[in-house]
Each structure stands twice: as C-alpha cells, then as structure tokens.
Amino acid sequence: MQGECERAMLATYEAAAGMAELVQATGRTLSSAQGRVIYLGEDTYGILGLVDASECPPTYNAMATDVQGFLDHGYDTLLNKEGDLTRVDPSLQLSWAHVDQALRPGMTPDDLVVFLLAPSTAAVPGLAARVAATGARVAVVRAAAPDAPALADAPANTLVVSVQLPALALSVLPAGPAVLAELAVKLVLNAATTGGHVLKGKVMGNYMIDLQVSNNKLFYRATSIVASFSGAPLPAAREALIKAIHQTSAPSPAQLAEDATPISEHIRAASAAVAAYAE
Asked: In the prediction, which pLDDT does 55 show?
C-alpha cells in the first residue's frame, strides 16, 4: 500500500499547474480585507475540508471565518456521536444548505468557494452556478481514476484541479481507491492553505511565525522559533515564551519548572489570552 500511496502523491503533483493557480487564488482571498475560503465537500472529502480549515487558526493565527468547511448533508455526513451541534450553538452550521441560504447572499469577488467532489461525481453541483453569480471565485478539486466521468456543468472561469490517479491493484486494499483519492485531495488542500498563508505573509524564512500556542506541538514549535531567531539556547527560549504567555517579566520558579507546571497550563493561559484579545 505504501507504494500505491507514493504513486498517488506523484500523480497529485502532476496537477501542479492547477494547484499553483489554487494557491494564488487562496492567497488573494486571504490577503483581502473580508475574503473567505469556503470548502464545500462531498462525503469524506468534505470532512477533509473541515480538517484543513480547523488547522488554520492555531497554525497561522487565522480567524475562524478565514477558512471554513461545510458538508453536503451537514451532520448526517459527519456522523459524529453527538449529532447536530447546532442545538448547542447555532453558529456550528455545517451544511451546504446553510451556505446557500445564509452565506451566499453576502458573497463578494474576494471570496473563494472550493468544491471538493467525490471521484464518481460527474457534474458540478448547481450551487456552484449560484455562487458564481455573486462574483465569488469558484474552484473544483477532484481526484479520480483516468476512466472517471468528465466533469460537466462547471460555471465559466471555474478553477479546476483534476488529479488523475494511477490504476490501483485492488487486491492491495479493498478501500484503496477511496484512500488514494482522499490522500490526493488532502495534499491539494495542504498546498492551498499553506501557500495562501505564505502569500499573506504568515511565514518568514520557512518558519510559521504567526501561530497560536494551543497544543504541545505548537508550544515546542514556538520555543524553537524563539531560539532560532534570537540565537538563545532552548531553555532560555522556553523561559522567554513562558514570560510572554503569562505576561510577566518575572515568572515564578514553579512556572519555569517543567516538573511543576505542565505544558497544558501554559497552553490554557495562552489560549485564554488569545480569546481575550479576540473580544
């Protein structure tokens, strides 16, 4: 299966021209004052869009509305244990219907709406034409075998990223074709949001410098960034980060001691500061 995944990866980057255009479009949207990248995905491809969108706030200190993900059938597609979470918070909308009814009327040319289609989808959904009528940019991403049906009904000037997956030895894994298509779409989305945030200025010298210290990985990444740019040893960089998180020039010995204050406490403090700033 590893070999098949490598072939799918190489096939994905054969669509480099379309991916580059999508990166440029994402960068223009993210760099605009009010632009949003909105993923509208079918089935598991929509879930990949949700995952990609959810990674942008902590990784690039993006607003939650900068990159958003929606599923064709909302929570019925997600199949989460808790069910429809709009009962808890009305803002947690996930369906295409919500986008059509609530978001589409306010779309502008700064917005980029990306449809993530399943390999068997033969026609771009009608929602794409309604989105295009607002002036928003429409893009379509699909990874499929060479014998998959050609896409029809795409609005004029639609940006299409079409990945032609290699033939797969089905005996390797029964779900192999779907796995490879999902891998290809995830690679395209990673390129779009990473490249888009680079173009927005969120990266310096290959360092993702504008991040939120919201988990262990990003705590250590932030420490490494401070060390790399200052030339300070890691312990000193860690101390500087803790001072910034707790907004003090004199942190207590307990705050500095790794065995006394777990990283989770620093993360909670950093997250609280971000939330307060957002208000």
From this structure: 95
From residue 185, alpha-carbon distances to 21, 151, 170, 250 in Å are: 15, 16, 20, 47
- Report the distance separating Cα 71 and Cα 95, nearest Å: 5
Sign of CA dihedral 51, 45, 99, 191: positive
Q: How far apart are CA 69 and CA 67, in angstroms?
A: 7
pTM: predicted TM-score of the whole model, two decimal places: 0.89
Calculate helix-pair angle for 176-200, 2-13, nearest 10 degrees: 40
Name the average pLDDT for the chain: 92
Determine which helix (DSSP H) or strand (DSSP E) holds 69, and give its type and residue range: strand 67-71
Owner of token pair 């605009």? 32
The contacts of residue 232 (CB under 8 Å, 6+ apart) are 226, 240
Using alpha carbons, list the distances in angstroms from residue 47 to 39, 72, 126, 190.
Answer: 10, 10, 21, 14
Which token pair is 198? 């680079």
CA distance 221 to 208: 9
Measured CA to CA, the distance from residue 55 to residue 59 in angstroms comes to: 6
Specify the amino acid at residue 136.
A
Residues whose CB is less than 8 angstroms from the CB of residue 199 and which lie 6 or more positions away in sequence, other chains included? 23, 24, 26, 27, 28, 30, 31
CA distance 124 to 116: 10
* Model confidence pLDDT, tens digit, residues 190-248: 999 999 999 999 999 888 999 999 999 999 999 999 999 999 999 999 999 999 999 99
